[in-house]
Amino acid sequence: MVNLDFKRHRRLRSSEAMRSIVRENHLRIEDLIYPLFVIEGENIRQEVPSMPGVYQVSLDLLHDEIKEIEQLGIQAIILFGVPHDKDETGTGAYSDEGIVQQATRLIKKSFPKLLVIADTCLCEYTSHGHCGVIHHHDVDNDASLNLLAETAVSQAKAGADIIAPSNMMDGFVTVIRQALDDAGFEHIPIMSYAVKYASSFYGPFRDAADSTPEFGDRKTYQMDPANRREAFREAQSDIEEGADFLIIKPALSYLDIVREVRNKYDVPIVAYNVSGEYSMVKAAALNGWIDEKNLVMEKLISMKRAGADLLITYHAKDVAKWLLEG
Ligand code: PBG
Questions:
Q1: What are the pLDDT digits (tens) for 104-150?
Q2: Which residues fall in the annotated binding site?
Q3: pTM (2 decimals)?
Q4: Residue 196 falls in the annotated catalytic set
């Protein structure tokens, strides 16, 4: 046989064992963060119509839900509240009796080892559905910051392990860090939604959390999908202000941003595989058009390959089951 002048890449793909010893990235159960919607009321376990397999769960039914999550080996959940009443200033977000505060206390009492991440935002609690208080038909940055800081402190008081501010007001990491420190929570990390685009991929979430803005959109505070350099300005300021983790959101259409933020910063990077990304896959799977398991595993490993350390994903329970099955 003559020694031809080309490379034989296929040598390293010849069997499952061969492929597995040269595999560069891995998805672990510990990488997964499961988002959970807690709803005010009783005896509710209601499937979100646009997110098959995802439920709004009331406090009295929470125990079984969390038990399942913990038994699967999932280490962290992120909580979103669906309150019964809403008002102009989103009081339910920072009330000590708010739905997320109640849920956090309940979960930490029975499952102390599970990490509870509190999404810190006002949009689920305001009557207008925006992420802050409204002045002259736009969200007032500085007036919203105080309420956000109050929300974070009340979540920490309830026992939240990580605070995840998502409202995209300038300075939120500074004021939340300060407020947490002042209240004796200097040990609680901030997982900042540093790079959050104004995305149509959030549509199903807004059904789940009942947080569609009543007027306008979120483009004066969330980022333009056309921008890349702006992501580094956002990440940079959050790092300087004290963020312990950076979230990039959405994930799939933004893997270039995940990679570049990974290359520039050393903090743990979190990719948020958002609701619309979940629903598209589910819809196709329910129609029998794709192989759900293989497709989900492929999209999640692509997020790890892009540089994410952690993945917030509605697929977490399914993925944990698949990983356990081997
Ligand atoms: C709250 C928040 C949103 C999401 C996470 N936190 C909604 C939004 O910004 O409109 C979206 C998550 C998803 O789509 O899965 N601000």
A1: 999 999 999 999 999 999 999 999 999 999 998 899 999 999 999 99
A2: 121, 123, 131, 206, 218, 234, 275, 314
A3: 0.97
A4: yes
**pLDDT-derived band of residue 235, with 50, 70 and 90 as boundaries?**
very high
Tally helices (H) and strands (E) across the chain: 12, 12
Fill in the amino acid letter for 20. Answer: S
What are the start-end ranges of the H helices in 55-197?
Answer: 62-71, 91-94, 99-110, 141-158, 172-182
Amino acid, res. 97? E
Helix, strand or coil for residue 79? Answer: strand
Fold classification of 25-325 is: TIM Barrel (3.20.20)
Q: List the one residue out of 32, 97, 109 whose CA is nearest residue 63.
A: 109
d(CA 138, ligand 1 centre) in Å: 18
From 121, 222, 275, mutation site for ligand 1 pocket: most ligand atoms within 8 A of C-beta: 121
For residue 213, cis peptide bond before it (omega within 30 degrees of 0): no
Is 219 assigned a catalytic role? no
- What gap in Å lies between CA 113 and CA 108, rounded to an integer? 8
pLDDT tens for each residue of 42-52? 999 999 999 99
